[in-house]
Amino acid sequence: MFELEPSPVRHIVLGVLGLIACVYDIRWRLLPDWLTVGGMVLGLILGGVLGGWDGALWAGVGMICGLGVFWLLWTLGMVGAGDVLFMGACGALLGWPLVIYGLVYATAAGMVIGLGLSLVRGNLFRVFGNLWIAVASTFNPRRKRVSLSDLPTDELPYAVAIALGCGWAALLPYWPTLNIVG
Asked: In the structure, what pLDDT confidence band is assigned to residue 155 with cuts at 50, 70 and 90?
Protein backbone atom coordinates (compact mmCIF):
# COMPACT_ATOMS: atom_id res chain seq x y z
CA MET A 1 0.00 0.00 0.00
CA PHE A 2 1.56 3.29 -1.11
CA GLU A 3 -1.17 5.77 -0.26
CA LEU A 4 -3.93 6.46 2.22
CA GLU A 5 -7.23 4.97 1.09
CA PRO A 6 -10.05 7.51 0.59
CA SER A 7 -12.38 7.72 3.56
CA PRO A 8 -15.69 9.57 3.72
CA VAL A 9 -15.25 9.92 7.50
CA ARG A 10 -11.93 11.75 7.15
CA HIS A 11 -13.27 13.88 4.32
CA ILE A 12 -16.41 14.88 6.26
CA VAL A 13 -14.20 15.84 9.21
CA LEU A 14 -12.09 17.87 6.75
CA GLY A 15 -15.22 19.68 5.55
CA VAL A 16 -16.34 20.54 9.09
CA LEU A 17 -12.82 21.65 10.03
CA GLY A 18 -12.69 23.78 6.87
CA LEU A 19 -15.99 25.51 7.62
CA ILE A 20 -14.93 26.34 11.18
CA ALA A 21 -11.54 27.62 9.95
CA CYS A 22 -13.23 29.84 7.35
CA VAL A 23 -15.48 31.43 9.98
CA TYR A 24 -12.55 32.08 12.32
CA ASP A 25 -10.29 33.45 9.59
CA ILE A 26 -12.92 35.73 8.05
CA ARG A 27 -14.25 37.00 11.36
CA TRP A 28 -11.15 37.20 13.57
CA ARG A 29 -8.22 36.76 11.12
CA LEU A 30 -6.78 33.93 13.19
CA LEU A 31 -6.89 30.17 13.36
CA PRO A 32 -6.84 28.82 16.92
CA ASP A 33 -4.40 26.08 17.87
CA TRP A 34 -7.19 23.84 19.16
CA LEU A 35 -8.51 23.78 15.60
CA THR A 36 -5.26 23.42 13.68
CA VAL A 37 -3.18 21.24 15.98
CA GLY A 38 -6.31 19.34 16.99
CA GLY A 39 -7.02 18.76 13.30
CA MET A 40 -3.53 17.33 12.76
CA VAL A 41 -3.87 14.99 15.75
CA LEU A 42 -7.36 13.94 14.64
CA GLY A 43 -6.12 13.31 11.10
CA LEU A 44 -3.32 11.06 12.36
CA ILE A 45 -5.68 9.20 14.70
CA LEU A 46 -8.31 8.70 11.98
CA GLY A 47 -5.61 7.59 9.54
CA GLY A 48 -4.50 4.95 12.06
CA VAL A 49 -7.97 3.83 13.12
CA LEU A 50 -9.31 3.58 9.58
CA GLY A 51 -6.14 2.38 7.84
CA GLY A 52 -3.92 0.79 10.49
CA TRP A 53 -0.22 1.62 10.66
CA ASP A 54 -0.14 2.30 6.92
CA GLY A 55 -3.00 4.76 7.31
CA ALA A 56 -1.23 6.59 10.12
CA LEU A 57 1.98 6.68 8.08
CA TRP A 58 0.35 8.16 4.97
CA ALA A 59 -1.66 10.63 7.07
CA GLY A 60 1.67 11.68 8.59
CA VAL A 61 3.27 12.06 5.17
CA GLY A 62 0.32 14.20 4.08
CA MET A 63 0.65 16.33 7.21
CA ILE A 64 4.39 16.83 6.71
CA CYS A 65 3.89 17.78 3.04
CA GLY A 66 1.22 20.32 3.93
CA LEU A 67 3.29 21.78 6.75
CA GLY A 68 6.48 21.85 4.68
CA VAL A 69 5.11 23.63 1.63
CA PHE A 70 3.19 26.20 3.66
CA TRP A 71 6.17 26.71 5.98
CA LEU A 72 8.11 27.85 2.92
CA LEU A 73 5.28 30.28 2.08
CA TRP A 74 5.31 31.49 5.68
CA THR A 75 9.06 32.22 5.53
CA LEU A 76 8.33 34.48 2.53
CA GLY A 77 5.60 36.25 4.51
CA MET A 78 2.88 35.00 2.16
CA VAL A 79 0.74 33.17 4.74
CA GLY A 80 0.34 33.24 8.49
CA ALA A 81 1.44 30.59 10.97
CA GLY A 82 -2.17 29.48 11.46
CA ASP A 83 -2.41 28.80 7.74
CA VAL A 84 0.67 26.58 7.96
CA LEU A 85 -0.87 24.54 10.78
CA PHE A 86 -4.25 24.41 9.04
CA MET A 87 -2.63 23.05 5.88
CA GLY A 88 -0.91 20.44 8.06
CA ALA A 89 -4.29 19.41 9.45
CA CYS A 90 -5.77 19.24 5.96
CA GLY A 91 -2.76 17.21 4.81
CA ALA A 92 -3.26 14.72 7.64
CA LEU A 93 -6.93 14.36 6.78
CA LEU A 94 -6.34 14.10 3.03
CA GLY A 95 -3.27 11.88 3.34
CA TRP A 96 -0.80 11.05 0.64
CA PRO A 97 -1.11 11.67 -2.36
CA LEU A 98 -4.33 13.72 -2.16
CA VAL A 99 -2.45 16.39 -0.20
CA ILE A 100 -0.57 17.27 -3.40
CA TYR A 101 -3.86 18.02 -5.15
CA GLY A 102 -4.98 19.95 -2.09
CA LEU A 103 -1.85 22.10 -2.22
CA VAL A 104 -2.27 22.82 -5.93
CA TYR A 105 -5.98 23.61 -5.65
CA ALA A 106 -5.51 25.72 -2.48
CA THR A 107 -2.80 27.75 -4.20
CA ALA A 108 -5.02 28.25 -7.25
CA ALA A 109 -7.99 29.23 -5.06
CA GLY A 110 -5.81 31.69 -3.14
CA MET A 111 -4.61 33.24 -6.37
CA VAL A 112 -8.15 33.66 -7.70
CA ILE A 113 -9.46 35.05 -4.39
CA GLY A 114 -6.45 37.37 -4.02
CA LEU A 115 -6.67 38.71 -7.56
CA GLY A 116 -10.42 39.17 -7.22
CA LEU A 117 -10.09 41.09 -3.95
CA SER A 118 -7.26 43.19 -5.41
CA LEU A 119 -9.39 44.11 -8.42
CA VAL A 120 -12.38 44.99 -6.25
CA ARG A 121 -10.20 47.08 -3.89
CA GLY A 122 -8.38 48.75 -6.79
CA ASN A 123 -4.83 47.83 -5.81
CA LEU A 124 -3.85 45.11 -8.26
CA PHE A 125 -0.68 46.89 -9.43
CA ARG A 126 0.51 47.40 -5.85
CA VAL A 127 0.05 43.67 -5.19
CA PHE A 128 2.20 42.68 -8.18
CA GLY A 129 4.81 45.29 -7.22
CA ASN A 130 4.98 43.96 -3.67
CA LEU A 131 5.30 40.40 -4.92
CA TRP A 132 8.17 41.41 -7.22
CA ILE A 133 9.99 43.20 -4.38
CA ALA A 134 9.62 40.24 -2.01
CA VAL A 135 10.75 37.64 -4.54
CA ALA A 136 13.62 39.75 -5.90
CA SER A 137 14.94 40.49 -2.41
CA THR A 138 14.81 36.79 -1.51
CA PHE A 139 16.95 35.67 -4.43
CA ASN A 140 19.33 38.64 -4.65
CA PRO A 141 22.09 38.21 -2.03
CA ARG A 142 23.11 41.89 -2.24
CA ARG A 143 19.68 43.15 -1.21
CA LYS A 144 18.16 43.08 2.23
CA ARG A 145 15.43 40.42 2.30
CA VAL A 146 11.95 41.93 2.35
CA SER A 147 8.99 39.87 3.49
CA LEU A 148 5.52 40.42 2.08
CA SER A 149 4.38 41.03 5.66
CA ASP A 150 6.68 44.11 5.72
CA LEU A 151 4.98 45.65 2.67
CA PRO A 152 1.62 47.45 2.54
CA THR A 153 -0.84 44.70 1.59
CA ASP A 154 -4.41 43.75 2.26
CA GLU A 155 -5.06 40.72 4.39
CA LEU A 156 -6.45 37.65 2.70
CA PRO A 157 -8.27 35.06 4.81
CA TYR A 158 -6.23 32.22 3.30
CA ALA A 159 -8.07 29.54 5.28
CA VAL A 160 -10.89 30.01 2.77
CA ALA A 161 -8.55 29.13 -0.12
CA ILE A 162 -7.11 26.16 1.80
CA ALA A 163 -10.58 24.86 2.66
CA LEU A 164 -11.80 25.23 -0.93
CA GLY A 165 -8.69 23.63 -2.44
CA CYS A 166 -8.54 20.73 0.01
CA GLY A 167 -12.29 20.22 -0.18
CA TRP A 168 -11.97 19.95 -3.96
CA ALA A 169 -9.13 17.44 -3.55
CA ALA A 170 -11.22 15.38 -1.11
CA LEU A 171 -13.90 14.96 -3.80
CA LEU A 172 -11.47 13.48 -6.36
CA PRO A 173 -11.69 9.83 -5.21
CA TYR A 174 -15.47 9.96 -5.60
CA TRP A 175 -15.67 12.09 -8.75
CA PRO A 176 -12.40 11.73 -10.73
CA THR A 177 -13.75 13.94 -13.51
CA LEU A 178 -13.26 16.92 -11.16
CA ASN A 179 -9.50 16.54 -11.53
CA ILE A 180 -8.28 19.56 -13.50
CA VAL A 181 -4.58 19.00 -12.78
CA GLY A 182 -3.96 15.75 -14.60
From this structure: confident
**The domain containing residue 63 runs over which residues?**
8-175
In a domain, 181, yes or no: no
Q: How many domains does the structure of the chain reveal?
A: 1
Tell me the DSSP string of 20-49: HHHHHHHHHS---HHHHHHHHHHHHHHHHH
Contact 66, 73 (CB under 8 A): no
Instruction: Please state, in angstroms and rounded to a whole number, the distance separating the CA atoms of residues 148 and 84.
Output: 16
8 A C-beta contact, residue 85 and residue 33: yes
Query: 17-46: per-residue pLDDT in tens?
Result: 999 999 999 999 999 999 999 999 999 999
Question: What tens digit of pLDDT does each residue of 164-173 get?
Answer: 999 999 999 9
> Is residue 65 included in any domain, yes or no?
yes
* Amino acid type, 86: F
Specify the pTM. 0.88
Q: Is residue 182 part of a domain?
A: no
Answer yes or no: is 2 within a domain: no
Q: How many residues does the chain have?
A: 182
